[in-house]
Amino acid sequence: MRVMAFGTYDTTVHPRVGILIEGLRRHGIEVVTCNVPLGHMDAGPMVPPPAAHPGIPRQRIRHARCIAELVAKARRAPRPDVVIVGYQGRLDIQIARRLFPGVPLVLDHLESVDDVADRLGQAAQAELRKVDRIEQAAIAAARLVLVDTEEHRRVLAPAQRERAVVVPIGAPQVWFDAASDLGPRARAGMRADHPPDLAADPLTGPDPATDPTTGLPQDSPTDFVPDFRPGEDLRVISFGLYSPVQGAPVIGAALSRLDGYPIAVTMIGRGLQAQRTRDLVGPNAPRVTWRTWVPEAELPRLVAAHDVCLGVFGTGAKALRLVPNKVFQGAAAGCAVLTSDTAPQRRLFGPAGLFVPAGDSDALADALRRLAQHPAEVARLRAAAAALARERFVPEAVVEPLVERLREIVDKRS
């Protein structure tokens, strides 16, 4: 089987396609790439802020040039058995359909137009809704539609769900390597020989027992060494866009309630709610370091040097359906994962994660206080998250459902 990864996707901005490529190759599938990265204005913490926004006409010119180069590359490439069109490929899939007639197309559909509107805020919604027809045409052109959670699959129309495959996002290998490269303190929370038992209800996930003293889950691995000790700061990191989905203001409000606790926080990113988040933190927060961006090569090691990785805390429809990149990456880097208590996140992490109600800054502050006072619990949560990541978040594990469907398609064509 020869699979082509096609489109204007950018793995430095959205690593999803790179994970798919690596996972397929680890299953022995030949993967060729036909890619001209377009780049995106919503690039997040690993891409420097643009010096100036180019405006719609310049964006369209840049897009046209990328498409021309993409077509030229495709015509030189060997004919594939299957074409996977990368994330944000609503237009790319129509080009692939014309370049490779009769070849099955797979659309990586992580985010609908409505989800983009939810992420970018009210100002963008009217403009984005104009491209809904383009999105529906892209889905119609695909033999398979990739989504990242069962909740996202249910948003599709009933006729489209039969062609949908749930493929979790996972984490690139560099995040696992970052955890291994750091010193003993950063690795201490990863000393677990066995992953936790994560058998769960298929829709709601487990409801683990909690320690009556700490209020934290008590059924994850226990053969660990505490990663930080009394008198040291609990190191907490949050990274990503300051968008309604992320719920960054919830984090800001929680930090304002942590005065006097040994907690050091790193906040990385930019976006619509950045200033509001800073304002909410106020003068009574623990030590907070603010960074607009971090080079792509540095972010995994920076995250791995922290004890706790914060997930998403928004209350919008998309926030309740997704499992974000950052929680996969944080777990792979050996951090304890603290995120909102949503069905897909609890189902995925079970006792390997710590959850608070979405949008509840008081509950988030309380969880951080408890973690700061119980180093052993932090180490245990780190061990559980790292073990789960090594078992389920590596590229070859997340693509297993896709590999099965691709082989069915190619076998039928043969």
Task: Write up what this structure looks like.
There is one protein chain. With 414 residues, the chain is of the alpha/beta class. The protein folds into 2 domains: 2-170 and 395-413, Rossmann fold; 173-393, 3-Layer(aba) Sandwich (Rossmann fold). The protein is 44% helix and 13% strand. The protein contains 20 helices and 12 strands. The protein has a 6-stranded parallel sheet with strand order 2-1-3-4-5-6, sandwiched between helices. Strands 9-8-7-10-11-12 form a 6-stranded parallel sheet, with helices on both faces. Strand 11, helix 16 and strand 12 form a beta-alpha-beta unit. Helix 4 packs antiparallel against helix 5 (122-129), helix 11 runs parallel beside helix 12 (274-281) and helix 11 crosses helix 17 (361-373). It is globular and about 65 Å long. Residues 183-208 and 212-226 have low confidence and may be disordered.
What would you say about this model in short?
Helices cover 44% and strands 13% of the residues. The protein has 20 helices and twelve strands.
**Count of individual domains:** 2
Helix percent reads 40-55%
Helical stretch tally: 20
Shape: globular
The CATH homologous superfamily of the largest domain is termed: Glycogen Phosphorylase B
**What's the Cα radius of gyration?**
21 Å
Please report the first level of CATH classification, the CATH class of the largest domain: Alpha Beta
Q: Specify the biggest β-sheet.
A: 6 strands, parallel
Which structural class is indicated by helix and strand composition?
Answer: alpha/beta
CATH topology of the largest domain: Rossmann fold
